[in-house]
Each structure stands twice: as C-alpha cells, then as structure tokens.
Design goal:
Layout (H helix, E strand, L loop, with lengths): L2 H4 L3 H26 L8 H72 L12 H7 L8 H68 L1
Helix pairs in contact: 2-3
C-alpha cells in the first residue's frame, strides 16, 4: 500500500509533497554538480545557476522543516485530543456497564419480589365467586385492587367474629359468676337448714315424749 493511500490528513499530505519535491530537487542538484565541469572552467552563468538552485534548495528545506514542525505539533495536539476522547469513551463505557449491572440487579430484585411467597397468599379467603356475589361493586376491579378488597373483607369479618367471641366470652363469664353465686347461695341455704334442723331437734324430742 502506497504512503499516499495511508496518509489522508491534508497537513501531512502537504509535508509529504514538499519532502518529495525537495528530495527530487536535491538529487537533481547533486546530478547537476556531478556532471558540471571543474569550478575553474565552469562558466559564470553555470555557477550562478548552481548557486540559485542551492539557495532554492535551502529555502525548500527551511519550508520543509517548518511544515514538519507544524505537522509534529498537529500530531501532538491530535494525540492529546484522541487521548481525551478515549478517556471520555472509557468513562461513558464505565457508566454504561454500571447501568447494565444496576439493570441486572433490579431485574433480579423484581423476579425475587414476584416469586416471593407472601403471607397474604396463604390467607384462607372465601372463594372469589362468593366474594363477588357479596360485593358486586368489585366485579370490574383489577387483580391488585380485588385482592386488597378481599383481604379487607376478610379483616372486617374476622373483627366482627372476634367481637362476637368477646361478647360471648363475657356472657359465659357472667353466667359462670351467676352460677357460682347461686351455688354459694344454695350452700349457705343448706347450712341454714342444718342449723334450723339442729335447733328444732329438742322440740322434736319434746313432741315425741308427749305422743
């Protein structure tokens, strides 16, 4: 592959063209000097032409040095810009990787939440058909709203049953207390009867003697 196919930057192409022209000029000047007669026999016109070509070569070399220096600084600046761009790309790539890992983490959390065996799923709720027959206003509710309504219904039913249980327990305790009181009253009555019978025994014996 030719150098012109590799180098596409306009500034570098200018440097290559100038370098190529200066090289050809130097080679031509060397060939011209080599083919010329000794300086003692060379004509003044030929010497002036050679001096002119030397000065032109020196000028072109100075221009080539300037172009080379500018190309060097341009390459350094391009390298710095490339380094900054690479750092920016690396930073964005790192952010993208972090977002990817965060996405995977969130997807894992979502899957864990969706597969979590929550306690509400084990509640002994009444069948859905029975609930809708009791609460037809929830027929068009979505799944989440319907589940919340069913749980709320179950809570209210259990609170009502608990209230009834508490009332029955109070009635039971009151009946137990009443029975105990009656039992105590009967026991006291038995004692009073025994005392009465004991007190009446002398009178009974008196009656028995007179009969």
């Amino acid at each position: 592959m030719a150098i012109d196919d590799i180098v596409t930057d306009p500034n570098l192409s200018t440097v290559l063209d100038a370098s190529r022209d200066t090289r050809l000029q130097a080679l031509n000047l060397v060939d011209q000097i080599a083919a010329a007669d000794p300086i003692e026999t060379t004509s003044l016109e030929a010497q002036q032409e050679a001096s002119k070509q030397q000065k032109l070569l020196i000028t072109n070399l100075a221009q080539l040095r300037g172009l080379h220096r500018a190309a060097h600084f341009g390459a350094r600046q391009t390298k710095s810009q490339t380094s900054e761009a690479r750092q920016e790309v690396d930073r964005l790539h790192l952010q993208l990787q972090n977002l990817y890992y965060e996405q995977r983490h969130l997807q894992g959390e979502i899957i864990a939440c969706e597969s979590y065996d929550h306690t509400y799923q084990q509640l002994p709720l009444i069948p859905l058909e029975e609930f809708l027959s009791l609460k037809p206003e929830h027929t068009d509710d979505d799944e989440n709203t319907l589940m919340i309504a069913r749980i709320e219904h179950e809570r209210s039913e259990r609170e009502a049953l608990e209230q009834k249980r508490t009332e029955l327990l109070k009635r039971k305790q009151k009946l137990i207390a009443d029975n105990k009181k009656r039992k105590d009253d009967l026991a006291n009555l038995d004692k009073e009867l025994e005392k009465f019978i004991d007190a009446a025994k002398p009178i009974q014996r008196l009656f028995d003697k007179n009969v």
